[in-house]
């Protein structure tokens, strides 16, 4: 690395308190009038909504009776969706905090996502079953699809390509046609998948499997079986030192952030080479989730220590919370 210890120590995050147990999932909304929103999932069962620029607390969604493993916001930030160990997925009004719908499942709901127009949600979890709920007909039975042989850890709604993607502890990523709910393709990974999301511009699917950080150009038509090579057709795989919990690609596609359950540090890597460029030190527990803001100027991280931290990723022309822009006095 070219960064000295002094330079690394100058990276001071904003620390967002409020949770009482480990923070396991984070997601930014698209930019809205006052900047993006940030939602956090926590084992304390109380997902929180924050201003994604300042980290200021906006509200807590209260109603789950178990750990909340996954939370997603609509692009406009008007609805939130959460999945919990209490066997439910809930849909919330993000302005008032009111519960709009509760969808009962037969086991832990580990993953949720919401369509771009905010009219449908998808869930997955311990049952290894994909479910699709219509918010215009919340009392109707969900559409269901089966294919995984172990718990579904992540669900991704890819509106632009009319498909859903699921990732499981069976080491498989399955692609489903939204119009038919049929399985169309599979990516096989060398280890269980712990995290999978779309990049900010929705052009790249990223996931972690063992000690690999993986990036797939989702516009490609060819889906090869994932191998351990650094580059394999349209999938780029970086083999890193630690077992990974989460990755996030910077919006400019030059770097990516990685969190691990093996240590307390957030690591920034060069996307082309996988070289470690920076280390962010500040958490007091393993890193469970990392997520870049839509403009890439903030990295949000969640940890076993129960905090969310916001890191300024470089020089900026915008003031963020306690940080001032280069043009500020």
TrEMBL record:
Entry keyword annotation includes Nucleotide-binding: no
WD repeat segments: 61-102, 145-186, 280-312
Keyword Repeat annotated: yes
SMART domains: WD40
UniProt cross-references to CDD domains, sorted A to Z: WD40 (cd00200)
InterPro entries: WD40/YVTN_repeat-like_dom_sf, WD40_PAC1, WD40_repeat_CS, WD40_repeat_dom_sf, WD40_rpt
Cellular component annotations (GO), alphabetically ordered: SMN complex
Pfam families named among the record's database cross-references: WD40
Gene Ontology biological-process entries: spliceosomal snRNP assembly
Keywords, sorted A to Z: mRNA processing, mRNA splicing, Repeat, WD repeat
GO molecular function terms attached to this record: RNA binding
Family: Belongs to the WD repeat STRAP family.
PANTHER family linked: EUKARYOTIC TRANSLATION INITIATION FACTOR 3 SUBUNIT I, SERINE-THREONINE KINASE RECEPTOR-ASSOCIATED PROTEIN
Name of the featured protein: Serine-threonine kinase receptor-associated protein
Species the sequence originates in: Absidia glauca
